[in-house]
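Much of our argument rests on the idea that a fold can be written as discrete symbols. Part of our work consisted of pairing the sequence of a single chain with a tokenised description of its backbone. We regard such an encoding as a compact summary of how the chain folds. The amino acid sequence and the backbone structure tokens for this protein are reproduced below.
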Amino acid sequence: MSNCATQSQEQSVDILLSRLEGVRELGNERFMACCPAHDDRNPSLSVRHAADGTVLVHCFAGCSAVEVVEAAGLRLSDLFPNDLRQTQASPRPGSYRPRAREALVALSAECSIVVAIVSDLRRGGVVSELDWKRLIQASAMIGEACRQCR
């Protein structure tokens, strides 16, 4: 398990930023930094801290999100807050009826995971066993959300 998962007091964005070089704050929870996945002399990595605690990364040089976080010594799942992951896992199907906003936030996070992994595949990347399992979990959670809405 990565440091991000074990350090619940420190936010994911702070952990990621502490591992990057040339960090500049642009305001509104947005940053630019040198990408750790390639030899970056001019900051090309955009980092944004979303309102739900999710950390969004985009390398303008073309590095995938997985490449970026792995080069920083993290995992893709570290970009999502622990409390968001916990609210998505219900102990028994049907035992908890989320409010519409909670459901949309959870679905948005799951869709972000799917997009990040599919984006890596599209670029010819290899999906790790951990990310493959997370993709299957995201699919199941999206399907369960659809069933709950019936």
Notes: Helices lie at 3-6, 12-18, 65-71, 82-88, 100-122, 129-148. The chain has one domain: 3-148.
